[in-house]
Amino acid sequence: MDKQRHFESAHCxxxxxxxxxxxxxxxxxxxxxxVQADTSANSSDARxxxxxxxxxxxxxxxxxxxxxxxxxxxxxxxxxxVPYAVxxxxxxxxxxxxxxxxxxLAQTVPGLSIYDYGARFSGSTPPIIxxxxxxxSPFRAFRSFEQAPVGTYIGxxxxxxxxELDDLNRVEVLKGPQGTLYGAxxxxxxxxxxxNSANPDKFEAAIDMGASxxxxxxxxxxxxxxxxxxxxGDGTWAFRAAGKYDYTPGWIDAYGLYSGTNQGISHAPTLxxxxxxxxxxxxxxxxxNWDWQKTFSGRTSLVWKPGTEFNAELAFLYANAKGDGGPTxxxxxPGGTSPWDPNSTLPGGGPYKELAFVDEPWNRTTKLTSLDMxxxxxFATVSSTSSYQTTAGSLIQDETADYSAFGTPPGAFLxxxxxxxxxxxxxxxxxxxxxxxxxxxxxxxxxxxxHAIDYVAGxxxxxxIREGDWYSAIPGSPEYVQAxxxxxxxxxxxxxxxxxxxxxxxxQGDLTFEQLDEQAxxxxxxxxELKWHFMPHGQIxxxxxxxxxxxxxxxxxxxxxxxxxxxxxVYPNGTFGYVAPTPHSSAAHKFLGKVNPSYExxxxxxxxxxxxxxxxxxxxxxxxxxGPFREAPVMYYYQPDTTNNYEMxxxxxxxxxxxxxxxxxxxxxxxxxxxxxxxxxxxAVFNAPKARSTGFELEAMGPLFVPGVSYSVGYSYTDAQLTxxxxxxxxxxxxxxxxxxxxxTGTSGAQMPGSPKSTLTLALxxxxxxxxxxxxxxAVNGVYHSRTAxxxxxxxxxxTPIQYSSDYKTVNLNVALKHSGWQGSLYSTNVFNTRxxxxxxxxxxxxxxxxxxxxxxDYVVNQPRTIGLxxxxxx
Length: 875
Known about the structure:
Blueprint: H1 18-28, H2 54-58, E1 69-70, E2 77-78, E3 86-89, H3 91-96, H4 102-106, E4 112-113, E5 128-129, E6 150-154, E7 157-158, E8 168-175, H5 179-182, E9 189-195, E10 204-214, E11 221-232, E12 237-248, E13 253-258, E14 284-287, E15 293-304, E16 310-324, E17 328-329, E18 336-337, E19 345-346, E20 353-355, E21 361-376, E22 380-398, H6 400-404, H7 414-418, E23 429-447, E24 453-473, H8 477-484, E25 511-535, E26 538-559, E27 577-579, E28 584-602, E29 605-616, E30 619-620, E31 637-638, E32 641-653, E33 659-670, E34 673-677, E35 683-687, E36 690-703, E37 709-722, E38 726-731, E39 739-746, E40 758-771, E41 774-785, E42 793-794, E43 808-819, E44 822-829, E45 837-839, E46 847-848, E47 851-852, E48 859-861, E49 866-874
Parallel strand pairs: 6-9, 13-20
Antiparallel strand pairs: 1-2, 3-8, 4-5, 6-7, 8-9, 10-11, 10-49, 11-12, 12-15, 13-14, 15-16, 16-21, 17-48, 18-19, 21-22, 22-23, 23-24, 24-25, 25-26, 26-27, 26-28, 28-29, 29-32, 30-31, 32-33, 33-36, 34-35, 36-37, 37-40, 38-39, 39-42, 40-41, 41-43, 43-44, 44-49, 45-48, 46-47
């Protein structure tokens, strides 16, 4: 089938398809698409990228008329000919919509969502497509235990961690299970960031600078980025480097921080009156513009192309993000006497205020080294992708207020941590660290097009190690209890905290708890897809993938405060509660299939259907099996989950510039995995019986009647819910450590968490020649998300009922002026300063020392209005 032929002038009235054509044109003309994209592609299976940037694309006249090319199927194809739902976003759109990372991208693509709690949570907030996610809003900033439901890639290399979207050719969002070509972990879809490769055909360089102001932030944000592309070796070699530094000032003011808590979790707070260690208050501080972030990211690319047959690219990506605090505020607390220190009065909260007692620094570093090679052997292209990726992060989280209300009844465990009476300088910080490294190797062969049968086949290997450590401490509290002189023994469950049995048991550095977890995972799979062109305009794709996987989880568990054996004995490592790091393993063998027919009923107008499967590995939970925090055997392991996707759609591009896509889908989800904090505080993955996701998506774009004006619209409706109720036993978190049958419940019809039912995006773009040599581009876009369920099961941690975010709506503006190589732009995100609650308090109105206290009412909110200016030059 010739994919390059031009439109026929009467393509909407071809007599052979007249009824269908008229119906589609009547129904879809006037809708607007979501994407304006350039036409270049970047894949080791295809020719090298032209290196076109967003600025190059903006030079085109009537950009909406351009053909969009993607490589989602491992070969160059037009977007409309790919027989499943694919969203494409180009650099010009990323800039116009204020997108800088995956979290902000998810706000603007219907059907794609994420828990957007800032870059510090990026280790535990993977993207979600079509509602295929069972894990709740992350109460704890730990890395997720289960495999992500969406495969995320830089080019052809899998990646996790935090990085910013810069120097990209395009972003491809592949909706629905992608188990055949993209493997395990793509049960909901795949997200591909296609970077610009080094270009042997031309020299290119650019530098851009910008400044911004966020409402309520005292400081000024700034960014500087640059790129250089150098061809050499008579056009056979090229080197490209792009880098960006970005500073976002904080816009939340923190109050109540104890002096000394910015030196790690084991440093005791400083006494305001050192001569009175039993009654002295801490020294309180404030921190204006607390939640700042600094990011440096860059990518280098070296391309060798000695001829038309062979191409190799060695690339290295580096990203480091660090900051303090997060988008969390407490507007409810009215102020009053500290529940731990009767001599201190705490200030009230506010819309941009957070009451925190511990400083919360965080950082994350992500690296990816990849080697892509391809060789055209005539009848096919043979390609190899080798990659080694690491990501490591750490953060401190203040849990002083929440854990003061922890236990059954609420606050039951406070004496174990703060003593009796409570330490007036009580503080309870958590430290989370994680590290992951992964080596991947894929070999594939992609046939040359033009035959009755096209094929893609390959083998894949991945070895991955993921570590996650969790530490909690109560610096100063054991020393405070000892200084009282009335405590000489550790408590038992019979005496609880009654003198003399009131010492606080801790480890070195006043640690109360540590959990050191390591996962080892290997995936060995073979895959293939075969496309049969059974008639001039019809084709059908058959795909399959066979997996052979192994998984081992090993966890060391030290609970210093409580004795899991309930006998008061000290074990050889000198702690009360010690669970040895015993490996727990599981293996999986699985075959997935795919059937995907499509038919071109008019030039560049397609109808398609798809059945595709997704698969995600199972695993083991190293939860305690004895003691007060032991869990039921059902929590020891979790099974793989699978998805079956049934989809039908229409896609096309008309000669007047209109491009459209419409689809309906039904995803049957078997044994959905849910990662959650259990009522005991343990972390575990477990399976629900059944869930499903149904919905539809509409996307279109095209020119308006005014010259130079184009518009786009995208809408998705996703109804993802449990379809079978369940009840699982779990530890109830009481001091007796009782396992209660049916404590964890899910009800048929409950919404799966993390995805809004409705997402709507609208955009207008106006390209105008202001003066000879001067071009003006103005863009306005709006986004609406309906409210989102934040968990599907109850009770979760502390028995909190199912919670929801508020709805989300925002409007962004961007005006760019271009002259010669210069370009300047003025932009504003969240123009109307709309406030949304992304997550309500995890323990609302917590009870501390027997009284309801709104110190626990922390809300996650979106960033307020930002106004900025950028200027750049390209040569």
